[in-house]
Amino acid sequence: MSSASPGSTTGTPRRPEAARSRPTDLATDGLPTLALRGVTKTYPNGKAALREVNLTVPEGDFVFLVGPSGAGKSTLIRLVIREELATKGKVILEGRDLARLKRREIPRIRRRIGIVFQDFKLLPNKSVRDNVAFALEVTGTPRSRIGPAVDRVLRVVGLSAQADQRPGELSGGEQQRTAIARALVHDPRLFIADEPTGNLDPQISWEIIQLLLRINEMGVTVLMATHNAEVVTALRKRVIGLEDGRVVRDEMGAAYHRED
Amino acid sequence: MIAFVAFSLRRAWQGFWRNGLMSLAATASMVLMLVMLSGLVILLSGLDATLKYVESEVEVVAYLKDSATPQDVSLLQADLKAMPQVASVTYVSKEQALADFQTRQPDVANLVNALPNNPLPASFQIGLRDAGGYIDVATFLRSQSPVDTVQDIKKTVSQMISVISVLRTGGIAVLAIVGLTVLFIIVNTIRLAVVARAEEIEIMRLVGASDAFIRWPFIFEGALVGLLGAAITIGLLILVQARLAGLLSDFFEVLPVQASAMVGQNVALIVLGTGVGIGVLGSYLSVRSYLRR
Fold this sequence. Notes:
The complex is a heterodimer of chains A (260) and B (293).
Chain A: H1 16-20, E1 34-42, E2 48-57, E3 62-66, H2 73-80, E4 88-93, E5 96-97, H3 106-110, E6 113-117, H4 128-137, H5 143-157, H6 172-184, E7 190-194, H7 202-217, E8 221-225, H8 229-235, E9 238-243, E10 246-251
Parallel strand pairs in A: 3-8, 3-9, 6-7, 7-8
Antiparallel strand pairs in A: 1-2, 1-4, 4-5, 9-10
Helix pairs in contact in A: 4-5, 4-6, 5-6, 6-7
Chain B: H1 2-18, H2 20-57, E1 59-64, H3 70-82, E2 86-92, H4 94-104, H5 109-113, E3 123-128, H6 134-142, E4 147-150, H7 155-195, H8 198-206, H9 211-251, H10 259-291
Antiparallel strand pairs in B: 1-3, 1-4, 2-3
Helix pairs in contact in B: 1-9, 2-7, 2-9, 2-10, 7-10, 9-10
């Protein structure tokens, strides 16, 4: 259960307390960023998308969420961003039970989460800069603070030079980096990537992964749902496997496929 | 707060122009509805004025027997005044009736003087609050002993009143139906405009925009559609005003009613209020389904 196996390509300096923690450990080392306790999600049509899911993600962790389509990965993410509520059990983000949030608290907790998707979800008629600034504008950030914040995250993702281009003029990788910049601009504590490399070729995928690792190095907890076996196996991070709505494996330094 | 309003207005303005086609569709249906609405309002207010005029002209005349004593007369007058249907009661004495007759018919005035006594009866002229009270008042009068005869209201006037009442009730019903139908169409058109931007709303929700930040730009945009629709409608009305005024004065020629003064300003206000109101309502309803989760 070491934090990084010999095959790891990263030198991610885990925080000591994060490195000691076990996947299912309760808060022996401070508040975990994310915790699911006996979470079951049944949709109105009777389909159970998640069954009795327990997991703890300590602060600063980097977690791959793997499993076949329909295993419940997307449902899990929708519960974490409080797009949906668990039918049973608790979803706890930074110590807050999401089911007990008041309506008006939901937007505030979402600003603690950065999220990107396979399809980028950029606004096609806005420039890169305006797409990123949008996240600040719609949350009531004073205009004087928007410019510097946008410039900073564009530097982080390496898009300063493309700031005035529109998504249609960018490559897929650049579009995803724009989405990442937008997700970072609120200084989230948890970064969720839902199949971020699903539409990208291998070379570009690696660039995106490197960026996510950098974000993780900055202390942000990263949760990445993916089918990209090559990336998962190469990085030897924590891997949580979902199948039919259940957690079937939760291993540190694991590969995409079970190795035992 | 000011920053929030400025933000919402700016977004509304951008939203309106960036989604040109949907905005155009919404504004066009808004104009269509408002034109229909103002047409109906003009027609209805015309009918209303006509009805009011006709009604104001309706009075019941009761001729009294010569044998009626002054006490009988004043008792009856008090009874009439107490009736809720009655607006005014005027007593016309025999002498007054004769004098009136002589001024109206100066040619035969001397002839009247030759008569041994005054042949004209005293009468009550009773003004009604509304024409519908006629039957009650007439029935009451016929049952009173001092009353000789009750003059029949002219058949045509009574028919006219009932036709106009039906038209007015019908007009309001048509207005309500048309209004609801078009409200439905406009709400749906605005809904389409909002659906076209579902992704934008989704992004706003994901980055943690509060409901107010999502809702108000759309509400302002709806108000803008209403405002623009109202402005175009009022512009169209001003363009056809000359012809319309001619039509109306033809229509009202027979009646001493001030048509144009009554119509213009009210219609403009109704058009403006309805346009903006429906625009706002449509946006509110459309966005609500995205926020309620």
